[in-house]
Design brief:
The structure is a homodimer. Chain A is of the alpha/beta class. The first copy, chain A, has 2 domains: 197 residues, Isopropylmalate Dehydrogenase, CATH 3.40.718.10; 154 residues, Isopropylmalate Dehydrogenase. In chain A, strands 2-1-3-12-11-4-5-10-8-9 form a 10-stranded mixed β-sheet, with helices on both faces. In chain A, strand 11 and strand 12 form a beta hairpin. In chain A, helix 10 runs antiparallel to helix 11. The longest helix of chain A is centred in the middle third of the chain and has 25 residues. At the A-B interface, strand 6, strand 7, helix 5, helix 6 and helix 8 of A face strand 6, strand 7, helix 5, helix 6 and helix 8 of B. Bound molecules: 3-isopropylmalic acid (IPM) (2 copies). One 3-isopropylmalic acid (IPM) sits at the interface of chains B and A.
């Protein structure tokens, strides 16, 4: 069977890294028995300027009807409210009900700051919280007042915690095959229920309850709890302590960027937007207009996002091949793009990784 | 004139560090011509358990009627919603209209992670955003739904940006006296207006406008802009780039804990809750029940909070004395509490710093 992959480069360096993602899929060894076909899809700021919408219906329809998975690059967005513009990735997550944003953060090698290996994954709720974007503005006694709704539901909190637990189990299985059995599985629930006792309180209690399911308990998954400010502190003080971190949308957004700094570059950090039966791989970095067109964007976040997408399409073997090839490139540390302190071009890094597949 | 200071130790190590704050005030050289009197005030979880309220009216009234400033230790809070309990520090900030939470973060010495000096201050809005705590819970089609209001007003955004600008000016004046004139003053406005275009959009445009006032412009204060996730990333990648960071309440909460990790220990980071004509010094750390009663809490966050409080009471000379004594203790690096990798007791550190006044 041929797997059909939607390619949504978006803006800026999205157009340089998404082709790299396509190349690695095409280069996978035939022994895996996988075939891919591709469809190019529009979204982003340039699309908005051209067509008046940042996410054409056709993009959504094609993904729904034809595709088995997709890759999303990055989009530029206007910093001030622009009539008719709305972030296409936020919209896609909701329209395809991609309820989990999975962001693994793994260190390359010990550094003076972080001598112990960092290997954690942030599982961010992807459909609600302040991202419902229900806002209003009115005139108050002393000028304008704007309000936004933060919405937390029991159902979304339960399913995000459940997938976080499943990711913890999967990581545990992988560690069993590699013999790293000393490490315990743990899911850390992040919240600010000391201030938002109802909304974050609902997230916390629901997530904990979901994690108490027998399948997690029997496997020994530890349930841990952190207030978000203290989480930001501890993430930097002892990152190797963490395994799986589950968080509402906005905290997950902030914490995953913070975690990316721990491993040296956002250019290394992948993500997958995951729903039931569909996944969109998406590098965590943005459209980076400052380096656009120079051919020096780090392709690794995208290549790892391809692997993540494959994992959630149940193609774990193909995923493992890509991870290994990327890790081997990083371990050698010779071909590095400028964000990593090197001089390599995007294509050179991709070529090197393809050779290692 | 005698300055009257309210002392609110709260719970846990709050009871160990607030006495240290009192001691340093009593030990200030008489040449400064300052006298202090003190009043002990209740608040916190123990107070709640004893009296049914975490913030007795008498505490608020005494602060309003008698005090020129105050010191707040830390409080323990229940992790699950507890009928009648509400965070006393959050309430105090609102009741006394202490609209700015000022959190300077300064590195002790170069480290392998951060070879360049870190010297920044986070100015956190202290009265609104999600901290208005207007929440509701209802039954939705798939279980419970909880909503919280994030409220941003033009007036609060404007005054917080104005005080951030004033802090930038004051820091510039201090640098002029010490000859560090190469460093430019900058205020970085943090927001997530790419998603919350109305609420965070209002914060961003209002803050920028306030910073364009002639007094800031003429002094050359640069206005910078960062989306909160990217701010968390950059704060770790290049902390020495930042001078003053202004943020809505919740982002300020998260970013200031994250920034504390940059300088090694939350036990070093002070804050002041500042209103017009009143300030409460408050160490950034919590009540730390794990080390309570051992006499090993780091007093430095509190001593620096005393200095910050004095600054906002226009006692800059006394403040400078405390900062210098603390810096001298840290520069020598011999008497360190366990959070800093040492073995010193709270009292030993306080004695050492008092000697250096
Ligand atoms: C571009 C922006 C809307 C987006 C988000 O906040 O989710 C980005 O920061 C991300 O993390 O994918
Ligand atoms: C204890 C808590 C309510 C408080 C806050 O969130 O403001 C604390 O984290 C702080 O930063 O002072």
């Amino acid at each position: 069977r041929t797997l059909r992959i939607g390619l949504i480069p978006g803006d800026g360096i999205g157009r340089e890294v998404i082709p790299a993602g396509r190349r690695i899929l095409e280069a996978l060894p035939t022994s895996l028995g996988l075939k891919f076909s591709f469809v190019d899809l529009d979204a982003g700021w340039d699309t908005f300027k051209r067509t008046g919408t940042a996410l054409p219906d056709q993009t959504v329809e094609t993904l729904k009807k034809e595709c088995d998975g997709a890759l999303f690059g990055a989009v530029s967005s206007p910093i001030t409210a622009t009539k008719g513009y709305s972030s296409p990735i936020v919209a896609l997550r909701k329209k395809l009900d991609l309820y989990a944003n999975v962001r693994p953060v793994k260190s390359v090698a010990p550094t003076p700051c972080f001598p112990d290996p960092i290997d954690l994954v942030i599982v961010r709720e992807n459909t609600e919280d302040l991202y419902v974007k229900e806002e209003k503005t009115y005139d108050g006694p002393n000028g304008k007042v704007a309000e936004a709704i933060k919405r937390i539901t029991e159902s979304a909190s339960s399913r995000i915690a459940t997938i976080a637990g499943e990711i913890a189990l999967r990581r545990q299985r992988v560690r069993e095959t590699t013999g790293e059995t000393a490490r315990k599985s743990m899911v850390t629930v992040t919240h600010k229920s000391n201030v938002m006792s109802q909304s974050d309180g609902l997230f916390r209690t629901t997530a904990r309850k979901a994690l108490e399911q027998a399948k997690f308990k029997d496997a020994g998954v530890i349930i841990d709890d952190q207030i978000v400010d203290s989480m930001a502190y501890k993430l930097f003080r002892e990152p190797s302590f963490y395994d799986v971190i589950v968080a509402p949308n906005l905290y997950g957004d902030i914490l995953s960027d913070a975690a990316a700094a721990l491993v040296g570059s956002l250019g290394l950090v992948p993500s997958a937007n995951v729903g039931d039966g569909f996944a969109i791989g998406e590098p965590c970095h943005g459209s980076a207009p400052d380096i656009e067109g120079k051919g020096i964007a780090n392709p690794i976040a995208t290549l790892r996002s391809v692997a993540l997408m494959l994992e959630f399409m149940n193609q774990e073997e193909a995923a493992a091949k890509i991870y290994q090839a990327v890790d081997a490139n990083l371990a050698e540390g010779k071909l590095l793009t400028p964000d990593m302190g090197g001089k390599a071009k995007t294509d050179e890094v991709v070529n090197d990784i393809i050779k290692r597949l």
